[in-house]
Amino acid sequence: MNASFEPGRDFAVALDRGDPLGRFRDEFHIPRSETGEEEIYFAGNSLGLLPKRTRRYVDAELEKWSRLAVKAHFSGENPWMPYHELLAEPMARLVGGSPTEVVTMNSLTVNLHLMMASFYRPTRERHRILLEDRAFPSDDYALESQARFHGLDPTEALLRVQPADVARVLEREGPSIALVLLPGVQYYSGQAFDIEAITQLAHAKGCIVGFDLAHAAGNLVLRLHDWNVDFAVWCTYKYLNSGPGSVGGCFVHERHGMRQDLPRLAGWWGHDKESRFRMEPGFQPIPGAEGWQLSNPPILSLAAIRASLDVFMEAGGMQPLREKSLRLTGYLDWLLQREISASVEILTPKNPGQRGCQLSFRIKSSVPGRTVLEKLEASGVTCDWREPDVIRVAPVPLYNRFDEVHRFVEILKKAL
Ligand SMILES: Cc1ncc(COP(=O)(O)O)c(C=O)c1O
């Protein structure tokens, strides 16, 4: 090891020792390499780790299924009929909404379509959708298909803009924009958008504003209700540690959620709870976000989300996690600059207020980026690669340590 690097390691170990959230690492299964050592897992922005308690929560539902079968919908501990309601309070706390504004259902892209069925109502004057130039492909496809669905030409209806141009384009094109759909945190660059300011600006121009919070939920402190966001959608398998393909989240601001007259795509799980099982025609939406549910939800997946949300609540919610995250990612940034600034170009904003825990960087070394990634993986690091030459790393405050950040930079330095 490089001698000049040694004090950094002591510093990292001391930070871990003084970390009040450090004990939460033991709540997770940390993947191990073939030699049995714990990996440096910096891919929580892609798939969060498995909380140890998840097995117990899922097993409890399997046990009910075996013992009670269909009766478990209405009897036993935590009956399945209202099971999703158990998630409303903690999920609402994580995104800054009230429990009636938040529902856990479907998956992100499905929820995006459901939201657009209600909130993208193009007219002759106001029909365009403002999105970012490098939107996550699923969002891009969803928005394009919505434009086509309404008989519009996507090349004209979709306004793809650079993040830096959002305010200017809103100012200039506002009256023709029906919907603004942006990410909370950009998946590729890790840039955090100013949700409150964008919402204010877009509302001043008469637009509806929705956010894709795939990379923001469980990463940033969010106040969706106070920021007046119209709707938001997110997945739970990244920072919310609920397992591959798990059920997503959806926020509908109460000023819309309490309206019964909004057009929507309906299903029986969104129908008035009192009369649902009378099985009669005539859809009456449940007031709030629950009224957008379609189907009875997958309980095993909801059980896994509940387990993860309980860990978040025990950690004190997003505020303390964000405080640690700022220090953890700040430390990573500082080490990258100090040790290898000539070999990496950090694409994520420098300002901690404009990013979450993820840093994305381009490899500038004579060693090809792919080779660097392979060397990282061979040394027990799991991170994420994006074509053509970008590595994304996300030290997650719930289970990553300062010492891992230090070891990561040391390994990266060698690989370069
Ligand atoms: C930013 C973003 N939006 C949308 C999606 C699509 O999510 P889903 O497959 O759950 O619909 C993802 C998935 O990784 C994502 O990262």
Question: Could you explain the architecture of this structure?
Answer:
Helices cover 37% and strands 13% of the residues. It is an alpha/beta fold. Strands 2-8-7-6-5-3-4 form a seven-stranded mixed beta sheet, sandwiched between helices. A hairpin with a 3-residue loop joins strand 12 (384-386) and strand 13 (390-393). The longest helix is centred in the C-terminal third of the chain and has 23 residues, at 318-340. The protein binds pyridoxal-5'-phosphate (PLP). The site of pyridoxal-5'-phosphate has 13 residues, from helix 4 and helix 5.
Provide the descriptors you would attach to this structure in a database record.
416 residues; globular; 13% strand; 4-stranded antiparallel β-sheet; 13 helices; binds pyridoxal-5'-phosphate; disordered N terminus; alpha/beta; 7-stranded mixed β-sheet
